[in-house]
Structure formats: structure tokens, C-alpha cells
Amino acid sequence: MQQWQELLLVAVTFLFFAAGATYVARLSLIQTFGKHLYDRQLGRSVTEEHYALDEQARRRIRWGTIAAAVIVFACTAVCFWNFVTLLILER
Questions:
Q1: pTM
Q2: Residue 64: inside a domain
Q3: Is residue 14 part of a domain?
Q4: Around Cβ 29, how many Cβ atoms within 10 Å?
Q5: Domain range holding 64?
Q6: What count of other Cβ atoms lies within 10 Å of the Cβ of residue 76?
């Protein structure tokens, strides 16, 4: 595998994990700032939770998601840069 293919593969993998972590942070913020309405049973052990969000809660969730994304993507960028430097030093 060529060096640019390895970099692309690692970059896509890191972005995938960073996007997942940001999504989980957003769900946590919705549960924190939203008003819990009800649970709807979808199956034997699967439920879907519903939350009501007012404008202040939406604003907090939006800015919290942005802050979480910046932190997660900064950590991901540091990990990717570490991989790049190790890959360059190895060859």
C-alpha cells in the first residue's frame, strides 16, 4: 500500500470516529437540556425517546455541539498528525 493510501485510510477512519463521538455528544446534550416527553416502544427492548426543545435549549445544544466537535476534531487531528510524523520518520 502506498503512503498516500495509508494516509487517506487513516484520515477517513479518524473522521468517522470523530463524527460518531460528536453525534453522541449531541444526543447527550439533547437529553440534558430537553424536556423528556415520553418513550415509544418500537420492539421488545427498543424504545425511542422524545424530547421537547425550546429556543434556549436549541441554542445551548447548537453551541455545545460546536464546542464538542472542535475538541473532538482537534484531538483527532493531533492523533492523525502523530501518525503522519511516524509514517514519515519510518521511511
A1: 0.77
A2: yes
A3: no
A4: 19
A5: 55-91
A6: 20
Contacts of 47 (CB under 8 A, 6+ apart): 39, 40, 41
- Provide, rounded to the nearest whole percent, the portion of the chain with pLDDT above 90: 51
**Burial (Cβ within 10 Å: 0-12, 13-18, ≥19) of residue 47:** exposed
Task: Give domain status of residue 80, yes or no.
Answer: yes
90 has pLDDT over 90: no
- Is residue 50 assigned to a domain? no
Chain centroid offset of residue 51 CA = 20
Tell me the three cell numbers of residue 71.
475538541
- Domains in the chain: how many in total? 1
**In this predicted model, which residue has the larger pLDDT, 91 or 13?**
13
Angle between helices 3-33 and 55-90 (to 10 degrees): 160
Find residue 50's DSSP bridge partners: 38
